[in-house]
Amino acid sequence: MRKLNFPVEDAIDVFDICISKIKNPDLKDRLENCKSSIQTAVTDYVDKAPRTELHTIATQNVINGNVTAEEMKKVYTDRMVGVTAPGRYIYDKWRASAPNNICPLCAQRTTDTLDHHLPKGHYPIYSVVPVNIFPACSSCNKIKLDAISVAPETDHIHPYFDNVEDELWLKAEVIEMKPASLRFYTVKPDDWDDIKYTRIENHFRLFELEKLYASHSGEELAMNYFRINKLFISGGAQSVRNFLEDSWLSMKSANVNSWQTATYEALFKSSWYQNGGFLM
Ligand SMILES: [Zn+2]
User: Fold this and answer.
1) Cis ω on the peptide bond leading into residue 50 (within 30° of 0)?
2) pLDDT higher than threshold 80 for residue 146
3) 143 and 176: one domain?
4) Are residues 150 and 15 in the same domain?
């Protein structure tokens, strides 16, 4: 949904920091020996991600022949997430890295956790790999859980590799029943291929964005009621229309695909709303 800048940290540096305080010599040795496998996995990832081929990466139970998935996942949970863990400062930095702390998956709620694009439960080698980890809200993180993709169409939108911000794909229409409300839906941009559009459709459905945006737009209409009514009384439907157009263009200049942009475009294009449909 929202593109994020790549994390600047090197995967092996992050891994080194996380395992730096492991005292068990056998475990430390086995993890140390995973570095070359991790580097190879990162190279494979950054090669495949821009081509929507991450689903072709095989799931793993063992890394480098002798590190279990559980042991590798613990490098994240025990050595990056823990409050006193050596990698905690990196966790905190990444968690705060989204603009205005807005979740890149829903573009609405605030970030309060980290999400693994390829879930660490199935791809433990990517447990602390920077390009696989981004800030997200707990709700989106929970919805996604350990879901894995089996085809390009089901590859989740990746905040570091996918740009779905420039072309218009989110629209809304006014439901002409009082109180007025909005229904959100997706449209296919001309420049997109079918796979890219199916991915955004899947994303929209999986993260229940229609429900999320309808809820927030309902609040927006209620909060605007006083202003719209005042404009209608003083200048009629045309004054309402002018306000809605300004709002739409302002929202659009900030973000083509926000629910706010879709809301004001739909209201601006609804003569029913401007001619009294807004009345409760
Ligand atoms: Zn979210």
Assistant:
1) no
2) no
3) no
4) yes
Cα of 134 from ligand 1 centre, angstroms = 11
In a domain, 267, yes or no: yes
**pTM, entire model:** 0.94
Residue 43 and residue 137 in one domain: yes
Do the domain assignments include residue 179?
yes
Task: For residue range 185-244, list pLDDT tens digits in order.
Answer: 999 999 999 999 999 999 999 999 999 999 999 999 999 999 999 999 999 999 999 999
- Residue 110 alpha carbon to ligand 1 centre in Å: 7
For residue 274, pLDDT beyond 90: yes
Domain range spanning residue 256?
170-277
Distance CA 169, CA 167 (A): 6
Strand partners, 115: 134
- Ligand 1 centroid from CA 266, angstroms: 24
Residue 144, pLDDT above cutoff 90: no
> How far, in Å, is the centroid of ligand 1 from the Cα of 129?
21
What Cα–Cα distance (Å) separates residue 185 from each residue in 52, 177, 203? 24, 18, 12
Q: What is the pLDDT of residue 30?
A: 98
Q: 141 and 178: one domain?
A: no
What's the 135 CA to ligand 1 centre distance in angstroms?
Answer: 9
Closest CA relative to residue 72, chosen from 33, 23, 117? 33
Q: Ligand 1 centre from 2 Cα, in Å?
A: 10
- 4 C-alpha to ligand 1 centroid (Å): 14
